[in-house]
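Title: Prediction job returns without error message
Component: structure pipeline
Severity: low
Priority: P3
Assignee: unassigned

Description:
Job completed but the reporter wants confirmation the result is attached to the right record. Sequence as submitted:
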Amino acid sequence: MNLETTLNLFKWKHYEAEIILLTVRWYLRYILSYRDLAEIMSERGLDIAPSTIMRWVHQYGPELEKRVRPFLKSTNDSYRVDETYIKVSGQWKYLYRGVDSEGNTIDFMLSEHRNIHAAKRFFKKVLSSPHNQSPRVITVDKNHSYLQQYNN
Protein backbone atom coordinates (compact mmCIF):
# COMPACT_ATOMS: atom_id res chain seq x y z
CA MET A 1 0.00 0.00 0.00
CA ASN A 2 1.47 3.34 -0.99
CA LEU A 3 1.70 6.54 1.02
CA GLU A 4 -1.22 8.17 -0.83
CA THR A 5 -3.57 5.30 0.07
CA THR A 6 -2.37 5.41 3.68
CA LEU A 7 -3.04 9.14 3.91
CA ASN A 8 -6.54 8.64 2.45
CA LEU A 9 -7.39 6.43 5.44
CA PHE A 10 -7.08 9.54 7.64
CA LYS A 11 -8.56 12.11 5.28
CA TRP A 12 -10.95 14.53 6.99
CA LYS A 13 -9.94 13.41 10.50
CA HIS A 14 -9.64 16.07 13.17
CA TYR A 15 -6.50 14.51 14.67
CA GLU A 16 -3.23 13.53 12.99
CA ALA A 17 -2.75 9.95 11.85
CA GLU A 18 0.03 9.36 14.42
CA ILE A 19 -2.28 10.24 17.33
CA ILE A 20 -5.08 8.03 16.02
CA LEU A 21 -2.76 5.07 15.42
CA LEU A 22 -1.06 5.45 18.79
CA THR A 23 -4.40 5.52 20.61
CA VAL A 24 -5.74 2.50 18.71
CA ARG A 25 -2.50 0.57 19.26
CA TRP A 26 -2.58 1.25 23.00
CA TYR A 27 -6.19 0.07 23.18
CA LEU A 28 -5.41 -3.13 21.29
CA ARG A 29 -2.15 -3.86 23.10
CA TYR A 30 -2.89 -2.97 26.73
CA ILE A 31 -5.85 -3.53 29.03
CA LEU A 32 -7.23 0.00 28.81
CA SER A 33 -10.78 1.25 28.49
CA TYR A 34 -11.81 4.03 26.13
CA ARG A 35 -12.15 6.29 29.18
CA ASP A 36 -8.62 5.38 30.32
CA LEU A 37 -7.27 6.36 26.91
CA ALA A 38 -9.27 9.60 26.88
CA GLU A 39 -7.73 10.45 30.26
CA ILE A 40 -4.20 9.58 29.04
CA MET A 41 -4.68 11.78 25.99
CA SER A 42 -6.10 14.56 28.18
CA GLU A 43 -2.89 14.46 30.25
CA ARG A 44 -1.06 15.12 26.99
CA GLY A 45 -3.25 18.11 26.15
CA LEU A 46 -5.66 16.38 23.76
CA ASP A 47 -9.39 16.44 24.46
CA ILE A 48 -10.68 13.23 22.85
CA ALA A 49 -14.05 11.71 23.74
CA PRO A 50 -14.12 8.00 24.63
CA SER A 51 -16.73 7.45 21.90
CA THR A 52 -14.31 8.91 19.33
CA ILE A 53 -11.63 6.46 20.44
CA MET A 54 -14.17 3.64 20.15
CA ARG A 55 -14.96 4.66 16.56
CA TRP A 56 -11.22 4.78 15.76
CA VAL A 57 -10.74 1.27 17.17
CA HIS A 58 -13.66 -0.05 15.10
CA GLN A 59 -12.44 1.70 11.95
CA TYR A 60 -8.66 1.20 12.17
CA GLY A 61 -8.33 -1.92 14.34
CA PRO A 62 -9.03 -4.42 11.55
CA GLU A 63 -6.64 -2.60 9.20
CA LEU A 64 -3.88 -2.64 11.83
CA GLU A 65 -4.47 -6.33 12.47
CA LYS A 66 -4.26 -7.10 8.75
CA ARG A 67 -0.98 -5.18 8.36
CA VAL A 68 0.68 -6.51 11.54
CA ARG A 69 -0.35 -10.17 11.18
CA PRO A 70 2.49 -11.11 8.73
CA PHE A 71 5.13 -9.84 11.18
CA LEU A 72 3.90 -11.69 14.27
CA LYS A 73 6.16 -14.25 15.91
CA SER A 74 5.33 -17.79 14.84
CA THR A 75 3.48 -19.96 17.29
CA ASN A 76 4.90 -23.31 18.36
CA ASP A 77 3.50 -26.63 17.14
CA SER A 78 1.47 -27.68 20.19
CA TYR A 79 -2.06 -26.25 20.23
CA ARG A 80 -4.78 -26.27 22.86
CA VAL A 81 -8.31 -25.40 21.74
CA ASP A 82 -11.32 -24.68 23.91
CA GLU A 83 -14.57 -22.79 23.79
CA THR A 84 -16.56 -20.96 26.40
CA TYR A 85 -19.92 -19.20 26.56
CA ILE A 86 -19.62 -15.43 27.05
CA LYS A 87 -21.87 -12.40 26.84
CA VAL A 88 -20.89 -9.91 24.11
CA SER A 89 -22.90 -6.70 23.70
CA GLY A 90 -25.79 -8.25 25.59
CA GLN A 91 -25.87 -11.46 23.52
CA TRP A 92 -24.52 -14.87 24.49
CA LYS A 93 -21.86 -16.23 22.10
CA TYR A 94 -19.39 -19.08 22.02
CA LEU A 95 -15.77 -17.95 22.13
CA TYR A 96 -13.49 -20.44 20.40
CA ARG A 97 -9.87 -19.87 21.41
CA GLY A 98 -6.63 -21.56 20.51
CA VAL A 99 -3.38 -21.15 22.45
CA ASP A 100 0.04 -22.69 22.01
CA SER A 101 1.85 -24.59 24.76
CA GLU A 102 3.43 -21.35 26.03
CA GLY A 103 -0.01 -19.74 26.50
CA ASN A 104 0.26 -17.38 23.51
CA THR A 105 -3.06 -16.83 21.76
CA ILE A 106 -3.07 -18.40 18.32
CA ASP A 107 -6.48 -17.13 17.27
CA PHE A 108 -10.07 -16.75 18.45
CA MET A 109 -13.53 -16.65 16.96
CA LEU A 110 -17.04 -15.79 18.16
CA SER A 111 -19.89 -18.04 17.07
CA GLU A 112 -23.63 -18.23 17.59
CA HIS A 113 -23.44 -22.02 17.86
CA ARG A 114 -21.23 -24.73 19.34
CA ASN A 115 -21.41 -27.32 16.57
CA ILE A 116 -19.35 -29.00 13.85
CA HIS A 117 -19.76 -26.07 11.43
CA ALA A 118 -18.39 -23.58 13.97
CA ALA A 119 -15.52 -25.93 14.87
CA LYS A 120 -14.60 -26.36 11.19
CA ARG A 121 -14.75 -22.60 10.61
CA PHE A 122 -12.45 -22.03 13.58
CA PHE A 123 -9.92 -24.66 12.49
CA LYS A 124 -9.90 -23.32 8.91
CA LYS A 125 -9.19 -19.86 10.28
CA VAL A 126 -6.40 -21.08 12.55
CA LEU A 127 -4.73 -23.39 10.05
CA SER A 128 -4.84 -20.88 7.16
CA SER A 129 -3.16 -18.06 9.08
CA PRO A 130 0.39 -17.52 7.73
CA HIS A 131 1.98 -16.79 11.12
CA ASN A 132 0.77 -20.07 12.66
CA GLN A 133 3.08 -23.05 12.45
CA SER A 134 1.39 -26.31 11.41
CA PRO A 135 0.46 -28.11 14.61
CA ARG A 136 2.16 -31.34 15.62
CA VAL A 137 -0.57 -31.97 18.17
CA ILE A 138 -3.93 -30.32 18.97
CA THR A 139 -5.40 -30.87 22.41
CA VAL A 140 -9.18 -30.38 22.63
CA ASP A 141 -11.85 -30.99 25.24
CA LYS A 142 -14.49 -33.69 24.84
CA ASN A 143 -16.79 -31.53 22.73
CA HIS A 144 -18.68 -33.84 20.36
CA SER A 145 -18.08 -31.42 17.43
CA TYR A 146 -14.35 -32.06 17.49
CA LEU A 147 -14.88 -35.80 17.36
CA GLN A 148 -17.25 -35.45 14.39
CA GLN A 149 -14.71 -33.29 12.56
CA TYR A 150 -11.91 -35.79 13.21
CA ASN A 151 -14.01 -38.68 11.90
CA ASN A 152 -15.10 -36.80 8.73
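Comment from assignee: result matches the submitted record. The beta strands are 78-88, 91-100, 105-111, 137-139.
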